[in-house]
């Protein structure tokens, strides 16, 4: 959530930055400022009346001490009239604050100055590419044919158990999932991240804290009986670990990693873009999250990008890094880098990670703070990244490393998987 102070200081700059994200409701900025002015006027009226109540209450005590009961009683009547006048102001103030907050949460985060202008993924900037695209033999198959050939993922039985978009991994497919998960976690903890295993369901306050609510209700599975949401990523519960806390400055940065299943309602149902493992309703992912000093967040973002890039290099996958344009960024992000791996059999790039700096957008919602040298509480910055999402990694490992009779695995996975190939 944007800070009111930011909007007050330069509303025109706020509008210009929101326009970079192609946010259409710029009039919301003016509405918020008007509500803020109303709130300040009501707060002033409330404070003035409360001061009169406090002053009159002291006078009552002094009059009673003097034995002037008549004057004390008159003063009590005066206090009662002040309180009667205060109540509708207090009610109006509370209502205005609620409406103001409801408007504020509709504004997305402001983009960094490094965010390129643009409206669609075609406008994203390629920062760099790495790895070698494989040259596949004639007749190379896409992963949805390979998983049938080697009997490692069963979409039909998954659909029978749950529904379309819920894959059932089996045999070597299940083992590969486990191997990748363990390797990703080991890679992250080796870089100083503390491992967590979070709940897969969160309450409304948690989903609100990271910006899933009110922006992404339709993308999450909801259980109305308990008012819980299935998590779209472990970023949601992990970042909320420190909600409503003041972190000791000497404990920064806070580096966390977590494995979880992830649940997305918007998986789609047709076309090559959503075929096989390209887009599913349930998938596994390892996440990295950092809470850092505001002065360090962009340096940390570069470190996290380098961390994910190194991980992809160890998997021997061709990849590219994109800096997302304003129109392709998430609601909460100030700057995002996407990682895509090249699917040789599909001849297309598949997104496998997003690494984002949210600055204080999430921490303002969650009230995650630290005390600076001046003793004042200030908001931390939050960052997160996929390290990594498994389905498209698996798809590319299968497609890019296929031979006539087996799938060769990168050497870094041999000890985790127990052998060098799938056959």
How is this structure best described in words?
The chain has helices at residues 4-9, 11-20, 27-66, 69-104, 143-149, 155-161, 172-189, 204-209, 235-239, 297-314, 361-366, 390-400, 414-417, and strands spanning 125-130, 153-154, 168-169, 194-196, 201-202, 222-223, 228-230, 246-247, 254-263, 282-292, 319-323, 335-343, 348-357, 369-371, 377-379, 381-389, 407-408, 421-422. The chain is an alpha+beta fold. The strands form five sheets. The chain has an eight-stranded mixed sheet with strand order 1-11-12-13-16-10-9-4. Strands 5-7-6 form a three-stranded antiparallel sheet. The longest helix has 40 residues, at 27-66. The chain is elongated, with a radius of gyration of 27 Å. The model has no long low-confidence stretch (mean pLDDT 95).
């Amino acid at each position: 959530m944007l800070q009111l102070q930011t909007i007050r200081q330069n509303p025109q700059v706020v509008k210009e930055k929101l326009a970079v994200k192609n946010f259409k409701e710029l009039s919301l900025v003016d509405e918020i400022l008007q509500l803020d002015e109303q709130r300040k006027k009501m707060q002033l009226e409330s404070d003035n009346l409360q001061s009169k109540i406090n002053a009159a209450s002291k006078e009552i005590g002094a009059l009673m001490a003097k034995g002037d009961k008549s004057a004390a009683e008159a003063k009590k009547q005066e206090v009662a009239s002040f309180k009667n006048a205060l109540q509708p102001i207090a009610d109006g103030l509370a209502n205005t604050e609620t409406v103001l907050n409801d408007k504020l949460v509709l504004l997305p985060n402001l983009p960094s100055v490094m965010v390129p202008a643009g409206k669609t993924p075609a406008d994203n900037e390629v920062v760099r590419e790495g790895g070698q695209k494989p040259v596949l033999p004639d007749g190379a198959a896409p992963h949805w044919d390979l998983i049938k050939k080697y009997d490692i993922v069963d979409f039909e039985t998954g659909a029978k158990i749950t529904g379309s978009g819920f894959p059932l991994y089996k045999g070597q497919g299940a083992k590969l999932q486990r191997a990748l998960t363990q390797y990703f976690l080991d890679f992250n903890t080796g870089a100083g991240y503390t491992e967590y295993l979070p709940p897969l369901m969160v309450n409304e306050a948690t989903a609100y804290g990271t910006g899933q609510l009110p922006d992404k209700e339709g993308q999450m599975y909801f259980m109305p009986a308990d008012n819980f949401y299935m998590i779209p990523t472990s970023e949601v519960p992990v970042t909320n670990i420190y909600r409503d806390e003041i972190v000791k400055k000497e404990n920064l940065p806070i580096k966390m990693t977590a494995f979880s299943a992830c649940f997305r309602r918007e998986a789609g149902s047709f076309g090559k873009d959503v075929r096989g493992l390209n887009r599913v309703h349930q998938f596994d992912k390892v996440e990295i999250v950092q809470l850092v000093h505001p002065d360090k967040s962009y340096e940390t973002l570069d470190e996290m990008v380098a961390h994910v890039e190194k991980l992809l290099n160890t998997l021997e996958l061709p990849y590219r890094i994109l800096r997302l344009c304003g129109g392709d960024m998430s609601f909460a992000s100030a700057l995002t880098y996407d990682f895509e791996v090249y699917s040789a059999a599909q001849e297309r790039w598949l997104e496998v990670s997003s690494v984002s700096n949210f600055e204080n957008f999430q921490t303002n919602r969650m009230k995650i703070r630290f005390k600076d040298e001046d003793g004042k509480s200030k908001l931390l910055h939050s960052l997160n990244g996929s390290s990594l999402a498994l389905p498209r990694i698996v798809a590319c490992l299968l497609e890019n490393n296929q031979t006539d009779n087996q799938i060769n695995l990168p050497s870094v996975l041999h000890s985790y998987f127990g052998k060098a190939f799938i056959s």
